[in-house]
Design a protein that fits this description.
Layout (H helix, E strand, L loop, with lengths): L1 H67 L2 H10 L5 H24 L5 E5 L5 E6 L4 E3 L1
Antiparallel strand pairs: 1-2, 2-3
Helix pairs in contact: 2-3
């Protein structure tokens, strides 16, 4: 009876080990192929996203450079840096309204922007507009 139990265990164990040894390289190869495919796919997606990011950054920089050359902005920055009487403040208001309208238009047309700010050469923020329409000034 003892020999029968040992024979049954060996009869079950030996084929299981042989099948496992035979199939293991195929399973391992399949796993490696899946990992390689996932890695290649992820790398291609990262490269595509990187290219899109570079393109968007270039467009944003081009927008900033184009906006910086608007005469309205130059006039506003020059007038903000000068001391004015209350009467002259009233003259600055239409210029400020034009800037606000221009910034809101740019925010509406270019969805990647949520806030636009006018920063002078001194690094101080003089005017900003957010996508929600709220306005903040310094």
């Amino acid at each position: 009876m003892k020999h029968l139990g040992v024979r049954l265990v060996l009869a079950t164990l030996i084929p299981t080990v042989l099948i496992t040894i035979t199939l293991a390289p195929f399973v391992w190869s399949n796993i490696q192929n899946r990992l390689d495919h996932a890695r290649t796919s992820a790398q291609a997606q990262l490269e595509a996203e990187y290219d899109v990011l570079l393109q968007d950054m270039n467009e944003s920089i081009n927008h900033a450079l184009a906006v910086a050359e608007f005469p309205t902005i130059e006039q506003y920055l020059q007038s903000v840096q000068q001391t004015r009487s209350p009467y002259q403040e009233g003259l600055l208001k239409p210029n400020r309204q034009q800037l606000e309208d221009m910034f809101k238009t740019l925010l509406a047309h270019f969805g990647r922007y949520t806030r636009m700010a006018l920063i002078g050469k001194d690094g101080a923020e003089h005017f900003s507009t957010q996508h929600s329409g709220a306005r903040t000034t310094k």
